Amino acid sequence: IMPERAPTLIERKAMGGLEATNGFQAQAAYLISVLPAALADVTFEGFIYEGFDDIELRYFSPGSEIGRVLDRAQVKSGHLSTGDIKAVVNAFVNGSKHNPAAYRRFILCVDTFPTDIRPLSKHLDRISRARPAYLPFPGLLDASEQALAEELNLKFGGDVGSIAGRLVLIEQRLTDRETNVARMRQEIEACLSADVAGKRATPLFEALEGMIAGNLGQFVSRQQIEAVLSEAGGVVLEANIPTVFVVSDAKAELRPSVVPLDATAFSGQGESRYPAAAQWEADLQAPIRRIASWAKSLSKSTIAIEGLYRLSTAFCLGHGLRSVNGIDLS
Fold this sequence. Notes:
- By secondary structure, this protein is α/β, with parallel strands linked by helices.
């Protein structure tokens, strides 16, 4: 059996959005609806529309070797069969196999799922919502996670269960313009604590649509999005000091306004109480250097540090951020 080849940007599938506008309204509406939540996340850097998939949102991730991860989304309108859903989900699996470190989440948004898929989407959502509540209890969800993976494999074949923890299935009708504009306003108010005046809502929605349509296949930065929000909608985001939250306990819950630094292996707990020098370099000092480079790229000279951590981790933070890169810590 020939192995499935890695996707490329010059395949017909990847060129689809550049060659046709069918589905643009739904795809743009979905992207506009998720941008406020993305902008509330300090690690969000921008998006590409019609790259390897319909939509890919890019985030800074200090724990990743490349320092970045993607949320990959497919948005489909109209009637879809179970076979259509299976094709999309297996394309996600193929992307994960060829680029395992690149993707944080795989999202499929449709008007309505086939009746045999709807229970599965509810199972995914139920377990996803439950995970934060059960973080303090290692292993409690293992049976549920295994059952979900087996259900995915049975329904879609292949190895779809391997992305069970990263797969999101959403039902959302995106064909009504008034509803899409209202949803945008609601998300901006909920995520950014800002209000868009009624008379500015439709012009802002159209400006965001124009930004998306005018940048097919190109990266659109956070700064470009914020400029459109400000000019067309009067929404101005505050420039806050970035906050790094040092995670020393796997049970810690994170808010989206912080940059997570995973220091659980260096917290003196568990089996690896005294990691080897190579692990300190790869899993702590290298991520700290990525944070420093990221902060400097944003012209940030001060970083706030939160969380509980050992003195040895504090030395690494001070050395990697302040001593070497001149970044003030608060």
